[in-house]
Give the backbone structure.
Amino acid sequence: MVIGSGPGGYIAAIRAAQLGRTVACVEQWKNPAGKPKLGGTCLNVGCIPSKALLASSEEYENTLHHLRDHGIGVENVTLDLSKMVGRKEAIVEKITGGVEFLFRKNKITWLKGHGKLTGKSGRGIGVEVSGDDETKAYWATDVIIATGSKARHLDDVPVDNVIVSDNEGALSFDSIPKKLAVIGAGVIGLELGSVWRRLGSDVTLLEALPTFLGATDETVAKEAARQFTKQGLKIHLGVTLGNVTTSATGVSIAFSDKDGADQTLDADRLIVSVGRIPNTDNLGLDSVGLFVDERGCIPVGEHCCTNDPHIYAVGDVVRGPMLAHKAEDEGVMVAEIIDGQKPHIDYNCIPSVIYTEPEIAWVGKTEQHLKAEGRAIKVGQFPMLANGRALGIGQTEGFVKIIADAKTDELLGVHIISVNASDLIAEAVVALEFKAAAEDIGMISHPHPSLSEVVREAALAVNKRALNI
């Protein structure tokens, strides 16, 4: 029994079914029309719809500002927001329908409703599923909890998804706000802020932390701040929030800036983007001897097993970054462990991506992290501006940075800010998994002209051998 059908849950269910298990998956999600849907937050109101809107907004901005660079003149450009949002919803419908097909193909039973653990007996682990019309009890030999996460809200800032929205409401605005405020300049805040800026909003982001994108390499964060500011995003760091007052037509946010000066930001709409919290409400954890830690996560061991050997938890409800692909890897790992195999995950080799423009992607450790460890390192960096393919497509912002051990040349971290960084990082993930050296990437032929050549040049630069700069 898998509770939750987001990336961690549905992938775990499919892998378990492939391995010959009889599998049921519990999911309570319904779309705005009240139709039950698989896929969880990621597919319905997270990763997939946000990337669809990011793509649409990029097309709009390119048409307005960049096609003329290619000798293409476009007059009387119009924006149909309802059609854009409709395209996003159609993509969600297609991909969630694809998961339904995969469930049928793999003979996985979809139990529609809320899943709750009820205890243990000689029959196994009890799971109660509450649907619209009835509640049924089931027993499973093994249970995987994959209930994901939800947007964190602020106590004094009620979200109505009209004037004040979380990430879900921010994907379905019915009009383009003239002025948009965003509380939080993290991954989701930057992505959603970028969408609406491209479509015409004056966007201001208020971030409580004193540093920008603290999880990224400092060199990348500095370049990202420069690029986003150049694009028009207004980013305030070290902010202390005061009163947030809403009306039928807008919102007023009082805050103190990093220097302690009191300020007021008036906007048409506000997006609250201050992180996510695990979905562990009403799961009946205590009935099977489980609990959550101070962060709301279910404690698990290295292989995602709880203190009960037949109950596992994966994805956003456990430690580690809240990433869909991390959840998928854990889902596969747990299904294979239940089958008696011995898989493992190297969490240092799980990449992170921010889908702004330019994109930001990284894997391994940052330069500041390695220096704090006292590790002797060497660094190579190569700009997109020196790459023929980047020049050809008019996307020359950013660079690739590679960090290796000073003595052994082993790759320790790869950090990219550029167009298509989410794709370029995959080569680095493979290299780190196989404990490659920077020299290994530098010796491998890369297609010309391609953006991937910048990865090779950065690897060569680690040993002061870059060829095109």
The CA atoms of residues 113 and 131 lie 4 Å apart. The chain has a mean pLDDT of 97.
